[in-house]
Amino acid sequence: MTEQSPPPRCDTAERARVIAAAHALGVPRDYGRRHRLHIMREPRELACIGIDIHGRKQWLAPPAARAWARMHAAALHDGIELQVVSAFRSASYQLRIIQRKLDHGQSIGEILRVSAAPGYSEHHCGRVVDITTPGYAALEEEFEQSPAFAWLQAQASTFGFRLSYPRNNPHGIAYEPW
Fold first, then answer.
1. In which domain, by residue range, is 99 found?
2. Chain-centre distance for alpha carbon 139
3. Residues 173, 116: contact at Cβ < 8 Å?
4. Is residue 53 part of a domain?
5. pTM of the predicted model, to two decimals?
6. In sequence order, what are the residues at sequence separation of 6 or more whose Cβ sits closer than 8 angstroms to the Cβ of residue 107?
7. Confidence of residue 5 (pLDDT cuts 50, 70, 90)
8. C-alpha span between 59 and 158 (Å, rounded)
9. For residues 127 and 174, what is the distance between their CA atoms, to the nearest angstrom?
């Protein structure tokens, strides 16, 4: 992979292999139905949106990348710094996250309360970005106390973004204010 190359994506056959591997790790076969989630197709194209808080390049589908750029600029104009924590990730990458958490002793039930199963994560579609702001821990509920969260609550829908997992969401995934 060259410096400018987007991360690898899963085609239909690879996604099916990843989902089968996830079932072998303990993801229930009726996971999608039970959690009201659908298989997410990965985009054909990805556009780089810059570097995340960990120094890694992040990618989104081109329309989402343009919307992110507009939203990021508008936030900066209003004195709000939005930082990317995570954007596109393939189903294969999501499987590696699940495996790593299992290797660290978490149960599949614990993992699926905070992460969608491989194949079902909105991150696969390339239209999702996890966000933080300086002074707040990444991927923690404390973000909802930030001026950035208040700005996003008021402005994100203008740019086509929404909160994926609000409190008491029908998917059974933990609240994510980021």
1. 12-159
2. 11
3. yes
4. yes
5. 0.89
6. none
7. confident
8. 21
9. 20
- Model pLDDT for residues 98-151, shown as the tens digit of each residue: 999 999 999 999 999 999 999 999 999 999 999 999 999 998 899 999 999 999
For residue 172, tell me if it sits in a domain. no
d(CA 94, CA 117): 7
Name all contacts of 158-162 with Cβ < 8 Å and 24+ positions apart: 158/71, 158/74, 159/67, 159/68, 159/70, 159/71, 159/74, 160/64, 160/67, 161/67, 161/68, 161/71, 161/129
pLDDT digits (tens, 9 = 90+) for 39-61: 999 999 999 999 999 999 999 99
Domain count, the chain: 1
**Residue 49: in which H helix or E strand, if any?**
strand 47-51
- What is the residue type of 1? M
Whether 138 maps to a domain, the answer reads: yes
Instruction: Report the CATH number at residue 27.
Output: 3.30.1380.10
DSSP state string for 137-171: -TTSGGGGGSHHHHHHHHHGGGGT---SB-TT-TT
